[in-house]
């Protein structure tokens, strides 16, 4: 019964996101049509990232910025529509595959999974205080300690 309720709730939430005006954001003159925004610490010199590198970061395969700083990934919880969309459409994996991948990686000592947060504000706060941090959020940030990074090859 609980599964059915979650499924119905997921459908209703998804329906609420079908092409509302807030689904596309413009930040610093860069349009993001994929429904998520990628932010990094404002002191990070990076200005863009390929979708391939973003995927590699969230799979723990890319662990250092070009500057040599260690990457610390954060994102909203995987059951949020924006992260589900990122994992399924951009990473081309199901949520179950993504979770299983990280369970296997953690069990074998093969990496550090991205930190997850309940709210966009928590992700932004994490990114603002960690020099090598990157985060996936919903909408544009309102904190000057983070900056939006352009993702090349995003839908």
User: Shape from CA axes?
Assistant: globular
Count of DSSP strands:
9
| The CATH homology group name | Periplasmic binding protein-like II
What's the alpha carbon Rg, rounded to whole Å? Answer: 15 Å
Total individual domains: 1
| Terminal Cα span | 36 Å
Instruction: Give the amount of beta strand, in percent.
Output: 15-25%
Contiguous helical run count: 5
CATH architecture title: 3-Layer(aba) Sandwich
Characteristic key phrases:
alpha/beta, two-stranded antiparallel ribbon, single chain, 5-stranded mixed β-sheet, 36% helix, D-Maltodextrin-Binding Protein, domain 2
Q: How are the elements arranged and paired?
A:
Blueprint: H1 2-16, E1 25-27, E2 30-32, E3 37-41, E4 48-50, H2 51-58, E5 72-76, H3 81-90, H4 95-107, E6 115-117, H5 120-129, E7 133-137, E8 146-148, E9 150-152
Parallel strand pairs: 4-9, 5-6, 5-7
Antiparallel strand pairs: 1-2, 3-7, 3-8
Task: Give a short overview.
The protein has helices at residues 2-16, 51-58, 81-90, 95-107, 120-129, and strands at residues 25-27, 30-32, 37-41, 48-50, 72-76, 115-117, 133-137, 146-148, 150-152. It is of the alpha/beta class. The N and C termini lie far apart (36 Å).
């Amino acid at each position: 019964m609980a599964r059915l309720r979650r499924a119905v709730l997921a459908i209703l939430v998804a329906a609420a996101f079908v092409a509302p005006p807030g689904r596309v954001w413009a930040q610093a003159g860069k349009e993001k049509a994929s429904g998520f925004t990628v932010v990094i610490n404002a002191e990070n010199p990076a200005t863009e990232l390929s979708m391939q590198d973003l995927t590699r970061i969230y799979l723990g395969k890319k662990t250092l910025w070009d500057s040599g700083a260690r990457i610390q990934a954060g994102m909203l919880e995987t059951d949020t529509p924006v992260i589900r969309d990122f994992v399924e459409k951009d990473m081309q994996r199901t949520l179950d595959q993504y979770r299983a991948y990280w369970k296997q990686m953690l069990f074998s000592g093969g990496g550090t999974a991205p930190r997850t947060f309940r709210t966009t504000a928590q992700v932004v706060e994490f990114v603002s205080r960690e020099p090598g941090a990157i985060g996936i959020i919903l909408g544009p940030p309102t904190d000057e300690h983070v900056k939006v990074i352009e993702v090349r090859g995003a839908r």
